[in-house]
Amino acid sequence: MLRNKELFIFDIEGVVVPAIDDSISSPPKDVVFTLNELRKIGKKIAFLSNISRIPYRRVADILVNLGIAESKAEVFTAGRVTAEYIDGRKKNARVFVISELGLIVDLEIDKNIKVVFEKPIDFVVVGMKRNINFDEINFALEAILDGAELISVGHTNYYKGDFLGKKGLFIGDIPICEMLSFASSRPYIKIGKPAPAIFGHILSEYVVEPKKAVMIGDKLETDIKGANSMGIFSIHVEPIVSPKHFLPPTDKEKIIPDLSVKNLKELLNYI
Protein backbone atom coordinates (compact mmCIF):
# COMPACT_ATOMS: atom_id res chain seq x y z
CA MET A 1 0.00 0.00 0.00
CA LEU A 2 2.82 2.44 0.86
CA ARG A 3 5.70 0.86 -1.01
CA ASN A 4 5.59 3.28 -3.95
CA LYS A 5 5.19 6.41 -1.83
CA GLU A 6 8.19 8.76 -1.88
CA LEU A 7 7.51 11.34 0.84
CA PHE A 8 6.24 10.69 4.37
CA ILE A 9 5.01 13.82 6.18
CA PHE A 10 4.61 13.51 9.95
CA ASP A 11 2.60 15.81 12.19
CA ILE A 12 4.81 16.88 15.09
CA GLU A 13 2.92 17.39 18.37
CA GLY A 14 1.01 14.26 19.34
CA VAL A 15 2.65 12.07 16.67
CA VAL A 16 6.46 12.21 16.94
CA VAL A 17 6.62 14.02 20.30
CA PRO A 18 3.97 14.69 22.97
CA ALA A 19 4.59 18.45 22.73
CA ILE A 20 7.33 20.89 21.75
CA ASP A 21 9.07 21.96 24.94
CA ASP A 22 12.37 21.54 26.78
CA SER A 23 11.04 18.82 29.07
CA ILE A 24 11.48 16.11 26.44
CA SER A 25 14.69 14.24 27.23
CA SER A 26 14.40 11.42 24.73
CA PRO A 27 12.13 10.58 21.77
CA PRO A 28 9.63 7.70 21.80
CA LYS A 29 11.52 4.53 20.73
CA ASP A 30 8.90 3.43 18.19
CA VAL A 31 9.12 6.84 16.49
CA VAL A 32 12.89 6.71 16.00
CA PHE A 33 12.77 3.07 14.89
CA THR A 34 10.07 3.76 12.29
CA LEU A 35 11.85 6.81 10.91
CA ASN A 36 15.15 4.91 10.65
CA GLU A 37 13.48 2.06 8.79
CA LEU A 38 11.85 4.46 6.33
CA ARG A 39 15.14 6.22 5.70
CA LYS A 40 16.92 2.89 5.10
CA ILE A 41 14.64 2.17 2.14
CA GLY A 42 15.09 5.64 0.69
CA LYS A 43 11.91 7.37 1.78
CA LYS A 44 11.94 11.15 2.12
CA ILE A 45 10.83 12.51 5.51
CA ALA A 46 9.22 15.81 6.50
CA PHE A 47 7.75 17.08 9.77
CA LEU A 48 4.84 19.51 9.75
CA SER A 49 3.10 21.60 12.40
CA ASN A 50 0.71 24.53 12.60
CA ILE A 51 2.89 25.87 15.43
CA SER A 52 3.50 29.60 15.38
CA ARG A 53 3.80 30.22 19.13
CA ILE A 54 7.36 28.83 19.09
CA PRO A 55 9.95 29.99 16.54
CA TYR A 56 10.62 27.56 13.70
CA ARG A 57 14.32 27.28 14.54
CA ARG A 58 13.54 26.27 18.12
CA VAL A 59 11.13 23.56 16.91
CA ALA A 60 13.71 22.33 14.40
CA ASP A 61 16.51 22.34 17.01
CA ILE A 62 14.43 20.18 19.37
CA LEU A 63 13.65 17.59 16.69
CA VAL A 64 17.25 17.47 15.46
CA ASN A 65 18.67 17.21 19.00
CA LEU A 66 16.28 14.36 19.76
CA GLY A 67 17.49 12.49 16.68
CA ILE A 68 14.05 12.65 15.07
CA ALA A 69 14.91 15.03 12.22
CA GLU A 70 18.18 14.65 10.33
CA SER A 71 18.31 18.38 9.56
CA LYS A 72 16.35 21.57 10.08
CA ALA A 73 15.39 21.47 6.40
CA GLU A 74 13.04 18.55 7.16
CA VAL A 75 11.00 20.63 9.62
CA PHE A 76 8.13 22.83 8.45
CA THR A 77 6.01 25.06 10.69
CA ALA A 78 3.29 27.55 9.84
CA GLY A 79 5.73 30.31 10.81
CA ARG A 80 8.46 29.10 8.47
CA VAL A 81 6.07 28.60 5.55
CA THR A 82 4.56 32.06 6.10
CA ALA A 83 8.00 33.69 5.89
CA GLU A 84 8.87 31.75 2.75
CA TYR A 85 5.48 32.56 1.21
CA ILE A 86 6.03 36.29 1.77
CA ASP A 87 9.57 35.98 0.36
CA GLY A 88 8.11 34.51 -2.80
CA ARG A 89 5.53 37.25 -3.12
CA LYS A 90 7.64 40.34 -2.46
CA LYS A 91 11.24 41.06 -1.55
CA ASN A 92 11.85 43.49 1.35
CA ALA A 93 8.18 43.21 2.28
CA ARG A 94 6.88 45.41 5.10
CA VAL A 95 4.85 43.24 7.45
CA PHE A 96 2.55 44.11 10.35
CA VAL A 97 2.21 41.16 12.73
CA ILE A 98 -0.53 40.40 15.24
CA SER A 99 1.00 37.50 17.14
CA GLU A 100 3.10 36.38 20.06
CA LEU A 101 6.88 35.98 19.95
CA GLY A 102 7.30 32.80 17.88
CA LEU A 103 5.83 34.10 14.64
CA ILE A 104 7.43 37.52 15.06
CA VAL A 105 10.86 35.87 15.38
CA ASP A 106 10.23 33.74 12.27
CA LEU A 107 9.51 36.86 10.25
CA GLU A 108 12.14 39.16 11.78
CA ILE A 109 14.95 36.66 11.23
CA ASP A 110 14.25 36.68 7.49
CA LYS A 111 16.51 39.28 5.90
CA ASN A 112 13.98 39.95 3.14
CA ILE A 113 11.17 40.85 5.57
CA LYS A 114 10.77 43.98 7.68
CA VAL A 115 8.41 43.76 10.66
CA VAL A 116 7.00 47.26 11.00
CA PHE A 117 4.39 49.18 12.98
CA GLU A 118 3.71 52.01 10.59
CA LYS A 119 2.49 52.36 7.03
CA PRO A 120 3.02 51.44 4.27
CA ILE A 121 2.24 47.77 4.93
CA ASP A 122 2.49 44.98 2.36
CA PHE A 123 1.20 42.09 4.49
CA VAL A 124 -0.89 41.81 7.65
CA VAL A 125 -0.03 38.51 9.36
CA VAL A 126 -2.24 37.14 12.15
CA GLY A 127 -1.21 34.34 14.50
CA MET A 128 -2.09 33.51 18.08
CA LYS A 129 -2.11 36.41 20.55
CA ARG A 130 -3.72 36.22 23.96
CA ASN A 131 -3.65 39.97 24.65
CA ILE A 132 -4.81 41.29 21.29
CA ASN A 133 -6.29 44.81 21.42
CA PHE A 134 -8.58 47.00 19.33
CA ASP A 135 -5.82 49.35 18.17
CA GLU A 136 -3.98 46.47 16.50
CA ILE A 137 -7.12 45.24 14.76
CA ASN A 138 -8.06 48.71 13.59
CA PHE A 139 -4.55 49.42 12.26
CA ALA A 140 -4.62 46.06 10.45
CA LEU A 141 -7.95 46.99 8.85
CA GLU A 142 -6.55 50.31 7.63
CA ALA A 143 -3.53 48.54 6.13
CA ILE A 144 -5.73 45.99 4.35
CA LEU A 145 -7.96 48.74 2.94
CA ASP A 146 -4.77 50.40 1.67
CA GLY A 147 -3.86 47.21 -0.21
CA ALA A 148 -2.03 44.94 2.25
CA GLU A 149 -2.51 41.18 1.84
CA LEU A 150 -4.03 39.39 4.87
CA ILE A 151 -2.55 36.08 6.05
CA SER A 152 -3.87 33.73 8.72
CA VAL A 153 -1.18 31.58 10.36
CA GLY A 154 -2.04 28.39 12.19
CA HIS A 155 -5.66 27.88 11.13
CA THR A 156 -7.06 27.99 14.67
CA ASN A 157 -10.59 28.89 15.71
CA TYR A 158 -9.88 28.96 19.45
CA TYR A 159 -7.42 27.27 21.77
CA LYS A 160 -6.77 26.42 25.39
CA GLY A 161 -3.96 28.22 27.15
CA ASP A 162 -2.60 30.19 30.09
CA PHE A 163 -1.86 33.89 30.23
CA LEU A 164 -1.00 36.08 33.25
CA GLY A 165 -2.64 33.67 35.64
CA LYS A 166 -5.71 33.15 33.47
CA LYS A 167 -6.36 29.64 32.20
CA GLY A 168 -9.06 29.14 29.62
CA LEU A 169 -10.01 29.66 26.00
CA PHE A 170 -8.50 32.26 23.71
CA ILE A 171 -9.65 33.37 20.28
CA GLY A 172 -7.54 32.16 17.37
CA ASP A 173 -6.32 33.62 14.10
CA ILE A 174 -9.22 32.46 11.90
CA PRO A 175 -12.00 34.51 13.62
CA ILE A 176 -9.78 37.61 13.62
CA CYS A 177 -9.06 37.23 9.92
CA GLU A 178 -12.73 36.52 9.19
CA MET A 179 -13.61 39.78 10.91
CA LEU A 180 -10.95 41.76 9.03
CA SER A 181 -11.95 40.11 5.76
CA PHE A 182 -15.63 40.92 6.33
CA ALA A 183 -14.89 44.52 7.30
CA SER A 184 -12.60 45.12 4.32
CA SER A 185 -14.41 42.93 1.76
CA ARG A 186 -10.99 41.43 0.96
CA PRO A 187 -10.06 37.72 0.94
CA TYR A 188 -7.23 36.23 2.99
CA ILE A 189 -4.87 33.29 2.66
CA LYS A 190 -4.73 30.51 5.24
CA ILE A 191 -1.35 28.98 6.05
CA GLY A 192 -1.77 25.96 8.24
CA LYS A 193 -3.44 22.57 8.06
CA PRO A 194 -5.97 21.77 6.61
CA ALA A 195 -5.53 24.63 4.10
CA PRO A 196 -3.68 23.56 0.92
CA ALA A 197 -0.93 26.21 1.00
CA ILE A 198 1.23 24.52 3.63
CA PHE A 199 0.93 21.08 2.01
CA GLY A 200 1.67 22.49 -1.43
CA HIS A 201 4.76 24.22 -0.07
CA ILE A 202 6.25 20.96 1.21
CA LEU A 203 5.43 19.07 -2.00
CA SER A 204 7.13 21.81 -3.97
CA GLU A 205 10.21 21.75 -1.72
CA TYR A 206 10.59 17.99 -2.18
CA VAL A 207 9.45 17.99 -5.83
CA VAL A 208 6.92 15.24 -5.12
CA GLU A 209 3.44 14.80 -6.60
CA PRO A 210 0.54 14.55 -4.10
CA LYS A 211 -0.19 10.94 -5.10
CA LYS A 212 3.38 10.01 -4.11
CA ALA A 213 3.09 11.55 -0.62
CA VAL A 214 1.74 10.32 2.72
CA MET A 215 0.48 12.43 5.64
CA ILE A 216 0.53 10.84 9.11
CA GLY A 217 -1.41 12.74 11.76
CA ASP A 218 -3.54 12.42 14.87
CA LYS A 219 -6.15 15.09 14.06
CA LEU A 220 -8.91 14.37 11.57
CA GLU A 221 -9.88 18.04 11.24
CA THR A 222 -6.42 19.26 10.23
CA ASP A 223 -4.00 16.48 9.24
CA ILE A 224 -6.41 14.09 7.55
CA LYS A 225 -8.79 16.63 6.03
CA GLY A 226 -5.89 18.60 4.56
CA ALA A 227 -4.23 15.54 3.08
CA ASN A 228 -7.48 14.25 1.60
CA SER A 229 -8.19 17.58 -0.07
CA MET A 230 -4.76 17.52 -1.73
CA GLY A 231 -4.89 13.93 -2.92
CA ILE A 232 -2.22 12.91 -0.40
CA PHE A 233 -2.57 9.44 1.14
CA SER A 234 -3.80 10.03 4.71
CA ILE A 235 -2.99 7.93 7.76
CA HIS A 236 -4.60 8.53 11.13
CA VAL A 237 -2.55 7.44 14.14
CA GLU A 238 -3.59 7.39 17.78
CA PRO A 239 -2.00 10.40 19.54
CA ILE A 240 0.84 10.01 22.02
CA VAL A 241 -1.12 12.24 24.40
CA SER A 242 -4.86 12.85 24.39
CA PRO A 243 -5.23 16.58 25.28
CA LYS A 244 -5.49 18.86 22.25
CA HIS A 245 -4.25 22.33 22.97
CA PHE A 246 -5.35 23.85 19.69
CA LEU A 247 -8.88 23.30 18.55
CA PRO A 248 -9.80 23.71 14.87
CA PRO A 249 -13.19 24.95 13.64
CA THR A 250 -16.06 22.52 14.14
CA ASP A 251 -16.55 20.46 11.01
CA LYS A 252 -19.79 18.59 10.44
CA GLU A 253 -18.53 16.55 7.50
CA LYS A 254 -17.26 13.04 8.06
CA ILE A 255 -13.51 12.89 7.58
CA ILE A 256 -12.20 9.43 6.73
CA PRO A 257 -8.49 8.58 6.52
CA ASP A 258 -7.15 6.18 3.91
CA LEU A 259 -5.62 4.12 6.70
CA SER A 260 -5.72 4.03 10.51
CA VAL A 261 -2.96 2.66 12.75
CA LYS A 262 -2.40 2.47 16.48
CA ASN A 263 1.23 3.62 16.38
CA LEU A 264 3.92 4.63 13.92
CA LYS A 265 5.68 1.26 14.00
CA GLU A 266 2.55 -0.31 12.51
CA LEU A 267 3.19 1.72 9.33
CA LEU A 268 5.99 -0.64 8.41
CA ASN A 269 3.47 -3.46 7.91
CA TYR A 270 2.15 -1.65 4.82
CA ILE A 271 5.48 -1.20 3.03
Structure overview:
The protein has 271 residues and is an alpha/beta fold. The protein has 2 domains: 7-77 and 193-270, HAD superfamily/HAD-like (Rossmann fold), CATH 3.40.50.1000; 79-191, Rossmann fold (3-Layer(aba) Sandwich). Helices cover 32% and strands 23% of the residues. The protein has helices at residues 29-40, 56-65, 78-89, 101-108, 134-145, 173-184, 196-206, 220-230; strands spanning 7-11, 44-49, 75-77, 93-98, 113-115, 123-126, 149-153, 158-163, 166-171, 188-191, 213-217, 233-237, 246-247, 259-261. The protein has a 6-stranded parallel beta sheet with strand order 3-2-1-11-12-14, sandwiched between helices. A 5-stranded parallel beta sheet has the order 5-4-6-7-10, sandwiched between helices. The chain has a 3-stranded antiparallel beta sheet with strand order 9-8-13. Strand 8 (158-163) and strand 9 form a beta hairpin. Helix 3 packs parallel to helix 4 (101-108) and helix 5 (134-145) packs across helix 6.
| Poorly predicted ranges | none
| Helix content class | 25-40%
Task: Count the E strands.
Answer: 14
The overall pLDDT, averaged over residues, is: 93
CATH class of the largest domain: Alpha Beta
User: What is the global morphology?
Assistant: globular
